[in-house]
Design a protein that fits this description.
Length: about 230
């Protein structure tokens, strides 16, 4: 079986926010697909502190991974070994490369078990006040300044034409620059939700304002995980 295991969005989140079955599945296997070994070990310790870290057998599964890179793990699964799939944050396979392994499991008739947990994308959307029936997630915006401007204005036009909420992210150390670009390139009355430090009991920041109001006071979000939503 492949267990799709959620990770916390903030390590300050109480363990009581998560389903007890997460710990049960972590205790059930020592084998995991992970995007980052250091983060994965912290997540395992968070949910199951009594599990011996030395017993963990971690296989890297990131955006560069191909099936050939994890052939050893796949052979183990074909022989009946259970694996867990851990995201860096939130649910696996959303803004996360884990779908490669899930796809392979379906092709090999290996059972996939998803476990409930937080998704920063969905939590930002439901907290925004925008259309939750119809929305699109775009991942990361282009790095090139000109391409980024085009994409920002394109997303704004989609909101105006369709009413669909438009969700996107940025690498945390570029958040402040993205906010500058959004307040510069978007129309004053366009509405933007910024959701940062989601699920952090002390530092969570979620606000929806018009661009003209964001221009008056921009949040400081350097190196802070955040999600951005445009909508009506």
């Amino acid at each position: 079986m492949l267990f799709l295991l959620p990770a916390y969005l903030s390590e300050n989140t109480s363990i009581t926010h998560f389903a007890p079955v997460i710990k049960e599945y972590i205790m059930q296997t020592d084998y995991f697909f992970v995007e980052n070994e250091k983060t994965a070990r912290k997540v395992v310790k968070f949910f199951a502190p009594e599990k011996k870290q030395a017993d963990l057998k971690l296989f890297l599964l990131d955006k560069y991974t191909e099936n050939a890179d994890i052939k050893e793990a796949q052979q183990l699964m074909l022989k009946g070994q259970d694996f867990g799939l851990l995201s860096e944050a939130g649910l696996p396979c959303i803004a996360d490369p884990g779908n490669l392994m899930v796809k392979w499991c379906h092709e090999k008739n290996i059972r996939v078990i998803p476990i409930s947990g937080p998704s920063s994308i969905i939590l930002a959307l439901i907290s925004s006040g925008f259309n939750g029936q119809e929305f699109t997630f775009h991942g990361y915006l282009p790095i090139d300044k000109g391409e980024k401007k085009k994409q920002i204005q394109h997303l704004e036009s989609l909101v105006q034409k369709t009413g669909y909420s438009q969700i996107f992210m940025e690498t945390p150390y570029r958040n402040n620059q993205l906010i500058e670009d959004l307040t510069k390139f978007l129309s004053p009355n366009t509405k933007l939700c910024i959701a940062a430090n989601i699920n952090d009991p002390e530092h969570e920041f979620i606000q929806t304002k018009t661009i003209k109001d964001w221009q008056k006071q921009k949040p400081e979000l350097h190196k802070v995980p955040a999600v951005f939503v445009l909508g009506k």
